[in-house]
């Protein structure tokens, strides 16, 4: 072969590499389709191949966060101090700065809706002490959930050696999010959210808007991962989860997920017994997350766990039997309106053994739980049956200027959409915080929380429970969400419904009315249009609802 011929041959080879089809350079593809009701796999392709999950990782970060909140180890109002590590994360970003203080609820929204890497890292540093400590907790939870081929290295999914998962494992995690924490699942269907220092837009809004019945869950994108998505949709009594790893673009990925969901709906039986997944025995309080320290009990965190940097310690002198989630605090009537004092929604659970660990309701500020004792004259509250909490008022998160980051960066975030503007935070409170308002003592600015164990109600005494002050302004419509055998069950249903449908019920008054055959759970103080809209949305969610007229 002549020299010229060799050069021509080498030149053609070099050109072929330059113009190699993009498909050949794409990340490996994997997919799974599951009937969420039963866990039955309806379709799979490379479902157990370990691939880069990218921001699908944040599903586990949020799962651990929800679990810690439900166990009372932290609350939505817990104030997080942003670490330098979290603030240094590349886009997609919320725009956090080192030392900034921000409530946990805003970090949750930013991580779930915008897929902000700095917000997820801040959560991880807060709950795990540092990146490695939180990754250890993630891996233990993954194992407990049955995610056999997943290894986490960080809280946000940025590419790291050994940070791998599979389509099957992420589908299992998505199913647990749906059934283990239904009260928080609506986060994943939000198109926008107030994240404290900015209004953020969903990275998944295109798919949510395009596919009928879609209500979540999470997108992911990095160069090694490609375009990933775990999506869930409900039509009638069917709910399907579809997962894709390695899409070549946002549009291609969304089209493939839609195709897989259609396949799932066509293959899933019309009616079947819902077999919810069993929540793992290994939960946050068994993994060293800023849990309550029970007097006389040893810390049950695994050896080697990193300490929680921002969380405080809660000590209980009297152990309550149960505390499944932070409850609404009692309040006082306002000077202007003379509103009805808020009653505590307390868990009526059977007594637990004295030595059992306690998951107590607490804010992450300087908190000390005390045994029942005579109240100070300046702090008049309802009688405390077991142990009450006294909480120092938490500072509000700093409202800082938003850094000029794009919503997502293709190199290390979810798929970008440069058309989305950034917004400045408004002062309007978020609906799910309204029931958290407490009674502040003007002498020392503390907040008195509800007793963990409610006093026994007086026999034959009808009690009306109102969770927050009325602002109905003469509105005399409402909705009924069911009749229940006990007052506790009615109160719990009202709280759960308010969290689920906060947009239309955020300004409504929660009221339990005792009748001859049970306890009616009502939202009152609404307009006719507001009541009809709330009922329509609840019925669409397969919840019972009846409009109550004047």
List the helices and strands and how they pair.
Layout: H1 3-18, H2 22-25, E1 30-35, E2 40-45, H3 58-70, E3 79-81, H4 84-87, E4 101-103, H5 104-114, H6 117-128, H7 131-144, H8 167-180, E5 192-194, E6 199-201, H9 205-210, E7 214-222, E8 226-235, E9 238-247, H10 250-267, E10 293-294, E11 315-316, E12 367-371, E13 387-392, E14 439-441, E15 446-448, E16 477-484, H11 487-500, H12 502-505, E17 509-514, E18 519-526, H13 528-540, E19 546-548
Parallel strand pairs: 10-11
Antiparallel strand pairs: 1-2, 1-9, 3-4, 5-6, 7-8, 8-9, 12-13, 13-15, 14-15, 16-18, 16-19, 17-18
Helix pairs in contact: 3-6, 5-6, 6-7
Give a brief outline of the structure.
Helix content is 26%, strand content 18%. By secondary structure, the protein is α+β, with helices and mostly antiparallel strands.
């Amino acid at each position: 072969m002549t020299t010229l011929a060799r050069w021509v041959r080498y030149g053609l080879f070099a050109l072929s590499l330059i113009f190699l089809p993009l498909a050949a350079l794409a990340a490996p593809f994997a997919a799974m389709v599951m009937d969420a009701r039963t866990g039955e796999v309806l379709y799979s392709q490379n479902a157990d191949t370990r691939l880069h999950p990218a921001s699908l990782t944040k599903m586990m970060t949020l799962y651990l966060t929800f679990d810690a909140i439900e166990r009372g180890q932290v609350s939505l109002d817990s104030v997080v101090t942003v670490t330098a590590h979290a603030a240094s994360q590349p886009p997609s970003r919320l725009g956090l700065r080192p030392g900034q203080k921000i409530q946990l609820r805003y970090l949750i929204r930013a991580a779930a809706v915008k897929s902000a890497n700095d917000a997820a890292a801040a959560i991880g540093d807060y709950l795990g002490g540092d990146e490695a400590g939180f990754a250890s907790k993630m891996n233990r939870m993954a194992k407990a959930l049955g995610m056999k081929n997943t290894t986490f290295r960080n809280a946000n999914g940025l590419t790291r050696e050994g940070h791998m998962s599979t389509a099957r494992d992420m589908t299992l995690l998505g199913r647990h999010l749906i059934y283990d924490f239904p009260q928080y699942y609506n986060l994943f269907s939000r198109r926008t959210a107030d994240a404290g220092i900015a209004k953020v837009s969903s990275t998944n809004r295109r798919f949510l808007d395009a596919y009928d019945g879609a209500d979540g869950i999470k997108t992911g994108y990095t160069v090694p991962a490609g375009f990933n998505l775990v999506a869930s949709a409900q039509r009638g009594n069917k709910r399907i989860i579809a997962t894709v790893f390695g899409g070549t673009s946002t549009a291609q990925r969304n089209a493939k997920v839609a195709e897989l969901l259609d396949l799932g709906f066509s293959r899933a039986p019309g009616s079947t017994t819902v077999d919810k997944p069993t929540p793992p025995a290994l939960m946050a309080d068994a993994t060293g997350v800023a849990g309550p320290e029970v007097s006389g009990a040893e810390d049950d965190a695994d050896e080697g766990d990193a300490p929680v940097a921002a969380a405080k310690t809660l000590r209980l002198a009297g152990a309550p039997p149960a505390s499944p989630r932070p409850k609404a605090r009692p309040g006082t009537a306002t000077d202007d309106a003379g509103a009805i004092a808020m009653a505590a929604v307390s868990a009526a659970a059977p007594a637990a053994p004295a030595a059992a660990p306690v998951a107590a309701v607490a804010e992450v500020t300087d908190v000390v739980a005390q045994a029942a004792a005579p109240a100070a004259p300046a702090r008049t509250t309802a009688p405390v049956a077991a142990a009450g909490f006294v909480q120092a008022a938490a500072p509000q998160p700093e409202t800082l200027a938003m850094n000029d980051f794009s919503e997502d960066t293709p190199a290390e975030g979810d798929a970008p959409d440069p058309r989305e503007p950034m917004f400045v935070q408004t002062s309007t409170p978020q609906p799910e915080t309204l029931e958290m308002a407490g009674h502040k003592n003007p002498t020392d600015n503390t907040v008195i929380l509800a007793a963990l164990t409610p006093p026994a109600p007086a026999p034959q005494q009808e009690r009306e429970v109102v969770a927050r002050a009325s602002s109905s302004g003469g509105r005399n419509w409402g909705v009924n969400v069911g009749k229940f055998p006990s007052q506790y069950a009615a109160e719990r249903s009202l709280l759960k419904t308010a969290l689920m449908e906060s947009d239309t019920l955020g300004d409504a008054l929660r009221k339990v009315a005792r009748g001859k055959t049970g306890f009616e759970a009502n939202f009152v103080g609404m307009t006719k249009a507001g009541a009809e809209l709330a009922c329509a949305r609840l019925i669409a969610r397969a919840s019972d609802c009846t409009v109550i007229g004047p």
